[in-house]
Amino acid sequence: MAKKKGPEMYEGKPVLLAANSDKLVDAVEAFKADYPDIPLEKPYVVRVKGKKVRSNAFDADTKVGVVILHTNVEVIDSAAFNGCTQLTSIVIPDSVTMIGPGAFSDCTSLASITIPGSVTNIGFAAFSGCTKLTSIVIPASVIKIDSSFSGCSGLTSIVVEEGNANYDSRGNCNAIIETSTGKLIAGCSSTVIPDSVTQIGFEAFLRCTALTSVTIPASVTIIHDSAFFRCTALTSVTIPASVTQINRSAFFGCASLTSITIPASVTKIYDNVFKHCSGLTSIVVEEGNANYDSRGNCNAIIETSTGKLIAGCSSTVIPDSVTQIAWGAFQGTGIKNVTIPTSVTKIDSYAFEECTSLTSITIPDSV
């Protein structure tokens, strides 16, 4: 009788063949039946075959520790390994061309990843929330990246390979920059923003909790939505006089920020820009701004044409000329006492939501 062939092994552990979580359960039972004397411990090493790892194939499967993709795999589809919190390593062959949206999002134990030179597309939030990743190299083959590394708070090194026609990390800046537009689309705690950058992109530094300070160069004109969302250790930021637009939630949840100055160049500030900045005590709009002001050293941002107060902080004193308290204007701030003047006729939704230190508020009959 021929001797039974042993199982495939990887770094001393058995390899299970499975296309998704349901098949993995079957593979475990089959292995135990075939090899009762070989220990099989979680999390497992899993080999995946087929041209595509389908959407949500192993979604939130904590039994997966190492994944080896077979050499015929071309696509890792959306959320294929989303929330696999025990996944520490994945072997991606050079047959793979696309890593889909959320493919590895919230894989919080994934410490390293090698993206092969065959990959052309890295989808939205593909590695979002992979907090143990410390470095990433984008190969020259990549033509599309979409907020793929937001919330990777452990990143300290970002490199785009030479020869990439669409992205670069000019001057060893530790960031991904869209070459044609100069937009910085992904940064990390050690990013130095080059003087040639024109925009800070959507979620570029989202949940970069190790970022303590940032110098935005005078080449930047737009700070996009959630650019510095919940950068909780960020203590200082200088917005240059070149900036004209600050988009929604740009500095949302930057709890360590104590002061902010809005330059005269800014023409548009969108909602929630400084919401949940609980440490803010000073807000100044520079003289000469035609759209916003901080009249009477009020420590707030007021829309000049309407008298609407759009952002306040713990030390705001609402001026008598204010007509409206905007949506979420004080949300999550450290304000303790509020006197609303009789000029105010409207208080928008969530204006004082989550103001946990607020002990007194006076609302006039004019509201």
Can you walk through the features of this model?
The chain is mainly β. It has one helix spanning 21-34, and strands at 9-10, 13-17, 44-48, 52-53, 64-69, 75-76, 89-91, 98-99, 121-122, 135-138, 144-145, 157-160, 167-168, 176-178, 183-186, 199-200, 213-215, 222-223, 236-238, 245-246, 259-262, 268-269, 282-285, 292-293, 301-303, 308-311, 324-325, 337-339, 346-347, 360-362. It contains one helix and 30 strands. The longest helix has 14 residues, at 21-34.
Characteristics of this structure?
367 residues, mainly beta, 7-stranded mixed β-sheet, 5-stranded mixed β-sheet, 30 strands, 4% helix
Beta-strand segment tally = 30
- Model regions low in confidence, pLDDT < 50 over at least 5 residues: none
| Beta-strand percentage range | 15-25%
Radius of gyration over all CA atoms, rounded: 25 Å
* SSE class: mainly beta
Instruction: State the strand order across the main sheet.
Output: 13-14-15-16-18-20-22
Shape: elongated
- Main beta sheet, described? 7 strands, mixed
What is the CA–CA distance across the termini? 91 Å
